[in-house]
Amino acid sequence: MSIKNIVFDVGDVLVDFRYRDLMRDLGFDENAVEFLSKNMVETEFWHELDLGIKTNADGVEKFTKEFPQYKDEVLKFWNNLQGIVKEYDYAAPLIKSLKEAGYKVYILSNYPEETYEMHWPTFKFLEYTDGRIVSAFEKMTKPDERIYRLLEERFGIKLEECIFIDDRPVNIEAASKLGMTAHLFTGYDDLIDFLNI
Question: pTM of the entire structure?
Answer without folding.
Answer: 0.96
